[in-house]
Amino acid sequence: MMRAAITGAGHYLPSKVVTNDDLARLMTTSDEWIQQRTGIKERRFIEHDGIGASDLAVPAAKMALDQAGLAPVDVDAIIFATLSPDVNFPGSAVFLQHKLGCRQICALDVRNQCSGFLYSLSIADAWIRAGVYRNVLIVGAEVHSTGIELNERGRDVAVLFGDGAGAVVVQPSDDDARGILDVELHADGVGARELWLEAPASMYVPRLTQAMLDEGRHYPKMNGKAVFRWAVDKMPEVAAASLARLGMTSQDVDLFVPHQANMRINQLVAMKLNIPQEKLVHNIDRYGNTTAATIPIGLSESWKEGRIAKGTRVLMAAFGAGFTWASAVVRF
Ligand code: UT7
Predict the structure, then answer these.
(1) What pLDDT shows up at residue 174?
(2) CA–CA separation, 186 vs 267, rounded Å?
(3) pTM, whole model, 2 decimals?
(4) C-alpha span between 134 and 8 (Å, rounded)
(5) Measured distance CA(144)–CA(147) in Å, rounded
(6) Rounded to the nearest whole angstrom, what is the distance from the C-alpha of residue 80 to the centroid of ligand 1?
(7) N or C: which end of the chain has fewer CB within 10 A?
(8) pLDDT tens-digit series, residues 128-138
(9) Helix, strand or coil for residue 107?
(10) Domain 3-173 class in CATH
(11) What b/e sequence results for 114-138 when a residue is b if at least 16 CB atoms lie within 10 Å of its CB, and e otherwise?
(12) What gap in Å lies between CA 97 and CA 51, rounded to an integer?
């Protein structure tokens, strides 16, 4: 059976480091509160106005293509996972296609927030196994810093998010034992309003009013406790289902790369799955929650550090807005 394999990974973080103490100058919060509740020490923000998600994606994509031994002209399809596209439309994938100098190929945006990377992986896997495309570039990239409320009213959400990009290249593999072994995707719209950015909205006339701006309805809102409860329930459930389908146990997992929303969530999920903490990858301490970018950044950094090598079996899981959640098992 033909499989799809991840053959390259890359990441890029903007250079501007924003510490918890920096945020404590803008709102009532503290390094201690943020670290205890989330594990975040610092995050990155874009250096100046005019940098979009597709700009962060360019260096991440180039690094992934280099590792796979491909040039931009070799790419057959781009899948761009983001909740913070450069502009409302068109999607960020077309901006990336143009900036990279790819051919006039397929360019698709995926709007599945924290699960966006794993949803994209499932699409790439299906395309490749069906013979539709050969060289698929997946990017997860977010610019959150321009869309969060960096003041007292927004403090519960603003301290969580950072900017960044991660990318992988997916290609056919003849080796049946290597590649994307399993992906499972879920959603339940019962949680759609528990974590959302409401305005501008096509269901309102006009889509954005001064009153909405005054009320801050153009900033993300989250019921943190509800999201936390769902995440620690659904991430282990979907990950365990993937492992069971493959006849694997947690002992067969070499590395666990979960979405990075909260260090406590990931430690609890790993514990529930019986995966020791030393197999757990985290970057939330340095980058905060970079949403669709967290998992590809984790893969890329782990690969560069030698934690991923030929044969490494990697489990991934994500939960986020929608609600949406997903898991994947990949053998490198
Ligand atoms: O990637 C998308 C998916 N997102 C997630 O998975 C996030 C899931 N949720 C969480 O990670 C946690 O719920 C949070 C980290 C967001 C919050 O932690 P928590 O332990 O649930 O705190 P809380 O919301 O219950 O807030 C506790 C207190 C409140 O004060 P009172 O009501 O106890 O007096 C908040 O007003 O902390 C207060 N608070 C803050 N204090 C200092 C809220 N935000 C802040 C802040 N600094 N930034």
Answers:
(1) 87
(2) 22
(3) 0.97
(4) 14
(5) 5
(6) 29
(7) N
(8) 999 999 999 99
(9) strand
(10) alpha beta
(11) bbbbbbbbbbbbebbeeeebebbbb
(12) 16
The residue-averaged pLDDT of 267-285 equals: 97
- The residue whose CA has the least distance to atom 36 of ligand 1 is 156
Do strands 313-320 and 164-173 pair parallel, antiparallel, or not at all (unpaired)?
unpaired
* Tens digits of residue pLDDT in 162-211: 999 999 999 999 898 899 999 999 999 999 999 999 999 999 999 999 99
Residue with tokens 């903490």: 277
Report how far residue 31's alpha carbon sits from residue 40's, in angstroms, rounded to the nearest whole number. Answer: 9
Domain ranges of the chain: 3-173, 179-331
Ligand 1 atom with minimal separation from the 38 CA:
15
Structure-token pair, residue 196? 């959302």
Q: Please identify which of the residues 259, 262, 266, 283 carries the catalytic annotation.
A: 259
Closest CA to 300 of 102, 128, 59: 59
Taking only the tens place, the pLDDT of each residue in 26-79 is: 999 999 999 999 999 999 999 999 999 999 999 999 999 999 999 999 999 999
Q: Helices marked H in the chain — which ranges? A: 20-24, 31-38, 53-68, 92-100, 116-129, 155-158, 210-215, 224-245, 263-273, 284-287, 294-304
Asked if 76 contacts 133 with a C-beta cutoff of 8 angstroms, the reply is yes
CB 283 within 8 A of CB 298: yes
Annotated active-site residue 106? The verdict is: no
Centroid of ligand 1 to alpha carbon of 147 (angstroms): 19
Closest C-alpha to ligand 1, atom 45:
156
Query: Which atom of ligand 1 lies at the shortest distance from residue 114's CA?
Result: 1
Which residue's C-alpha comes closest to atom 21 of ligand 1? 225
Say how far apart CA 260 and CA 299 lie, in whole Å. 12
Beta carbons of 92 and 81 less than 8 angstroms apart: no
What separation in Å is there between the alpha carbon of 224 and the centre of ligand 1? 6
CATH code linked to domain 179-331? 3.40.47.10
CA gap 70, 321 in Å, rounded: 33
The whole-angstrom separation of Cα 258 and Cα 269 is 9
